[in-house]
Specification:
single chain, 131 residues, alpha+beta, Immunoglobulin-like, 2 domains, five-stranded mixed beta sheet, 2 helices, rod-shaped
Length: 131
């Protein structure tokens, strides 16, 4: 009987130790991986006809997120959606994320804003034939 109790205690101890090892490994994956950024919109090289765009994405293992140097908010699930106003022509957009160990990931991408030329404006600026 004493032998069975020792064996049961040993098996229980092994399971507890195994559980602790697996738990520590699972929790350290985020530490090893570092901050993760997944940008959904806009895509690099996109051309827009409207000056206001949505910058959307998801982050993991971060403490703060900034868009062109301005801190933006993320929800509890790690998603962000921020409005951004484009200048005419080429726009460089930078997203920087930091984790609690001061590791930084930066994603710089280019988007182009080409304003629409309306038919009325186009006709008003060009001379008409026969006049």
């Amino acid at each position: 009987m004493q032998n069975k109790l020792k064996r049961a205690g040993m098996i229980f101890g092994i399971f507890v130790a195994l559980f602790i090892i697996i738990f520590v490994f699972y929790r350290s994956i985020d530490l090893i991986r570092g901050p993760v950024l997944e940008l959904n919109e806009p895509k690099n090289g996109s051309v827009y006809l409207s000056p206001v765009i949505d910058v959307r994405g998801a982050v993991k293992n971060v403490t703060d997120v900034s868009l062109n140097g301005r801190q933006i908010l993320i929800n509890k699930n790690g998603f962000f959606n921020e409005k951004y106003i484009l200048s005419e022509g080429l726009n460089k957009i930078s997203i920087v994320i930091n984790d609690r160990f001061d590791r930084k990931v930066e994603n710089i991408f280019d988007v182009i804003f080409k304003p629409q030329i309306y038919a009325d404006e186009k006709n008003a600026d060009s001379p008409r034939d026969g006049i």
